[in-house]
Q: What sequence folds into this?
């Protein structure tokens, strides 16, 4: 074989390999690059640009340009979709017009529990006091988002595998038609009362949750979550962080400043009280029903509350229905290294040692009475 023929074959081989690699690179790039929406920008958008819903249906990733976009219905995301803005404060999706309320919808929503791999980031989602929620998430990471003006909530978590990071949740819950006021973040596991509370295990970390008309975070019958390193301030309602019939949570490293008012948990009257009156709390744990009366295992047990700064009328309040049954109170919880300075009444525990055969809560190194390592008041 001549030298020229060998050289020709080698060039052809390398060219073929290069073309294949280029095609693979293009396919790989297409998978990770985002479709930019709208095509011609927010000011000069034309008919050729698809709707945002069509864009997210057609592309795995959509990047929304800066601008305010009025949506007349919810934007639904399915598995393995990414929706991100160019700027959290300058890319705004806003509910508007004849909005289709059903009490469950969000401006951005994931509507099935089998959804996974969704990412939403770098946007403002404005429910505009029209949509029930700003965001409804399952199987999703929400990062660097501003969620505001939901009629009922800023972010609702009715399913598994939700993560909320580095976001601002504000001014939600003012016009909720059901059980007002609504919360900044609400996690709910009561869709089927015949089942044990679901272990949705949401993670709520490094957020600013402020100026909402109900609790900052309201957890209703959901287990195994994390509330960590959030700043939770100036929310109304009965608590900065509220756990009802919820177990195995870690609540740690949060700064909570809840106004010390006469707001209390009106929807669970057995949990409306305390040794110093029916008032608000920075961190609030409630258990009031026997499993034979409601959902199985509606208990508030084995939660860890540590290294928080919590100020309100009550810094930390554990309360239940022990007047009816001695064990219908939060039990087996660990409360340690918390600072409740600035609270009217530091810490209160509705389960006295010996009240039942087991279940005492463990309090360690909290400044419940103004100095370090002082215990709660038992009532």
A:
């Amino acid at each position: 074989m001549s030298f020229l023929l060998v050289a020709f074959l080698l060039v052809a081989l390398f060219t073929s390999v290069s073309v294949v690699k280029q095609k693979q690179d293009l396919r790989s790039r297409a998978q990770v690059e985002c479709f930019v929406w709208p095509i011609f920008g927010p000011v000069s958008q034309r008919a050729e640009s698809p709707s945002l819903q069509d864009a997210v249906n057609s592309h795995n990733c959509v990047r929304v340009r800066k601008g305010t976009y009025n949506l007349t219905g919810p934007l639904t995301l399915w598995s393995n979709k990414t929706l991100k803005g160019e700027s959290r404060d300058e890319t705004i999706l806003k509910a508007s017009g004849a909005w289709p309320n059903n009490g469950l919808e969000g401006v951005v929503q994931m509507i099935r529990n089998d959804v996974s791999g969704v990412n939403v980031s770098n946007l403002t989602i404005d429910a505009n006091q029209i949509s029930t929620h700003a965001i409804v998430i399952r199987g999703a990471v929400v990062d660097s988002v501003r969620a505001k003006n939901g009629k009922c909530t800023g972010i609702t978590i009715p399913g598994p595998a939700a993560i909320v990071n580095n976001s601002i949740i504000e001014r939600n819950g003012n016009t909720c038609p059901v059980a007002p006021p609504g919360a900044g973040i609400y996690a709910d596991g009561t869709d089927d009362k015949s089942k044990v509370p679901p272990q949705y295990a949401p993670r709520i970390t490094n957020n600013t949750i402020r100026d909402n008309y109900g609790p900052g975070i309201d957890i209703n019958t959901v287990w195994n979550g994390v509330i960590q390193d959030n700043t939770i301030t100036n929310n109304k309602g009965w608590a900065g962080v509220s756990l009802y019939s919820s177990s195995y949570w870690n609540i740690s490293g949060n700064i909570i400043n809840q106004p010390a008012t006469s707001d209390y948990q009106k929807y669970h009257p057995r949990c409306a009280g305390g040794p110093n009156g029916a008032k608000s709390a920075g961190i609030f744990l409630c258990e009031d029903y026997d499993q034979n009366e409601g959902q199985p295992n509606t208990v508030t047990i084995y939660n860890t509350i540590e290294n928080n700064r919590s100020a309100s009328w009550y810094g930390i309040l554990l309360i239940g229905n022990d007047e009816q049954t001695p064990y219908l109170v939060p039990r087996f919880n660990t409360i340690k290294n918390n600072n409740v300075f600035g609270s009217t009444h530091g810490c209160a525990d509705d389960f006295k040692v010996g009240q039942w055969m087991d279940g005492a809560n463990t309090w360690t190194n909290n400044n419940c009475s103004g100095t370090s390592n002082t215990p709660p008041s038992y009532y």
Notes: Residues 183-378 form one domain. Residues 22-31 have pLDDT under 50 and may be disordered. The longest helix spans residues 3-32.
